[in-house]
């Protein structure tokens, strides 16, 4: 089943995208900072969410991990 049609998979993909973008921006900020608009601006926005809301994103990742490991 596609991640678009399964809500839990969609949340997992979004969380992984946010975490990955924040990690890439921490390693190489120029990769994401030059694309603040357009379709590649989505990655910059995800990196900003990951940086500013990192305790909440981390909590959501832990809850998602427990959900995937113990409820499926």
From TrEMBL:
Q: What is the recorded membrane topology of this protein?
A: Single-pass type I membrane protein
Q: Name one GO cellular component term.
A: Golgi membrane
Give the residue range of the signal peptide: 1-26
Name the InterPro entries for this protein: KISH_domain (IPR051523), Ksh1 (IPR009653)
**Keywords for this entry?**
Golgi apparatus, Membrane, Signal, Transmembrane, Transmembrane helix
Establish whether keyword Transmembrane helix is in the entry. yes
Q: From what superkingdom does this record's organism come?
A: Eukaryota
Give the residue spans that cross the bilayer.
Answer: 54-71
Compartments where found: Golgi apparatus membrane
Q: What is the similarity comment for this entry?
A: Belongs to the KISH family.
- Name the PANTHER family for this protein: PROTEIN KISH-A (PTHR13229)
Task performed by this protein: Involved in the early part of the secretory pathway.
Q: What is this protein called?
A: Protein kish
List the taxonomic lineage. Eukaryota, Metazoa, Chordata, Craniata, Vertebrata
């Amino acid at each position: 089943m596609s991640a678009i049609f399964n809500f839990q998979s969609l949340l997992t993909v979004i969380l992984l995208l946010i975490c990955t973008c924040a990690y890439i921006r921490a390693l190489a900020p120029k990769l994401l900072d030059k694309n603040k608009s357009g379709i590649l601006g989505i990655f910059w926005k995800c990196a900003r969410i990951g940086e500013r809301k990192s305790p909440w994103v981390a909590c959501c990742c832990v809850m998602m991990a427990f959900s995937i490991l113990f409820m499926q």
